[in-house]
Design a protein that fits this description.
Number of domains: 3
Structural class: mainly alpha
Mean pLDDT: 90
Helix content: over 70%
Strand content: under 5%
Radius of gyration: 29 Å
Number of strands: 0
Low-confidence stretches: 1-18
Number of helices: 12
CATH architecture of the largest domain: Alpha Horseshoe
Shape: elongated
CATH topology of the largest domain: Serine Threonine Protein Phosphatase 5, Tetratricopeptide repeat
Order of helices and strands: HHHHHHHHHHHH
Distance between the termini: 100 Å
């Protein structure tokens, strides 16, 4: 029995020594990788980081992040060769793996999103944020990112829906309503839908949002200006001259209100009008 205990102790000690040796070797490989990474020698950095993970990946879970960063360093935007696309694929895989354990690492998350955008993988970026919102439904920054990404895709209807979600989440913030109103104006003024009913619906949504922002912040100059502009867009669609005149009169009223706000601000700061 005593002999068995001695053998067990010896075996345990040798395992501990081996584990300690592996950790030291892994640390050395990481040190070499870090030096290469600092020199922007991403190929060598990747080699050493991957070697460290083979030696003792369990002790250094952040290796996924650094392997991902090294792959990003090797990735060349607009290069469609299979090898280059593989770097993008593997970088995304590594960073997503890391973010599963460290979801609050905003730097790593931004690196992943930037990779998606540089690789023209906007849909992947949108899907990432959608997944994130399943566990962080109140993250306004994520909702805003989705709205911007849909706009980048040219999918205005989805972008508008997500900008509207921001007003629901951040319902006490006049800026949320202002931004939504501006997006509506930009659509109808610069790239209007062919269907006049759809165009009118966007104008009404924009007007309601801007009016709400002014209710929350009565002298919100920018919201007043854009509300004036939306009334003018509506007037352009109105076939009835009397109603058109009413809409333009409302627009002029808002324009004059905006001018008065500017005068007040100048007076308050001691400037000449």
């Amino acid at each position: 029995m005593k002999k068995k205990l001695c053998l067990f102790s010896a075996l345990t000690l040798s395992v501990l020594l081996l584990a300690g040796c592996q950790k030291i070797q892994a640390r050395m490989a990481i040190g070499e990788a870090n030096e290469a990474y600092q020199r922007e020698d991403y190929a060598n950095a990747l080699t050493h980081y991957e070697r460290a993970r083979k030696i003792d990946g369990k002790s250094f879970p952040e290796l996924s992040r650094m392997i991902g960063y090294s792959r990003i360093g090797l990735y060349v935007p607009e290069d469609t060769t299979p090898a280059n696309q593989k770097n993008a694929d593997l970088a995304a895989t590594e960073l997503r793996r890391y973010l599963q354990d460290e979801p609050d690492d905003t730097i790593a998350r931004e690196a992943l999103i930037n990779l998606y955008l540089n690789a023209n993988r906007t849909a992947d970026a949108i899907n990432y944020f959608r997944e994130w919102l399943q566990t962080h439904p109140g993250d306004i920054a994520a909702v805003r990112s989705i709205a911007q990404l849909y706009a980048k895709q040219g999918n205005f209807n989805e972008a508008l829906n997500w900008y509207e979600k921001i007003t629901l989440i951040d319902s006490k913030n006049p800026e949320a309503f202002y931004i939504f109103g501006v997006v509506c104006y930009e659509k109808v003024a610069k790239n209007p839908p062919a269907d006049p009913v759809e165009k009118m619906a966007i104008i009404e949504k924009g007007k309601a949002a801007l009016q709400r922002s002014i209710e929350l912040k009565p002298e919100y100059f920018e919201s007043i200006v854009y509300l004036n502009l939306l009334y003018r867009q509506q007037a352009l669609m109105e076939p009835d001259f009397a109603k058109q005149a009413e809409l333009l009169a409302k627009a002029d009223e808002l324009k004059n209100k905006a001018i008065e706000i500017v005068k007040k601000r100048k007076a308050a700061s001691g400037q000449k009008s």
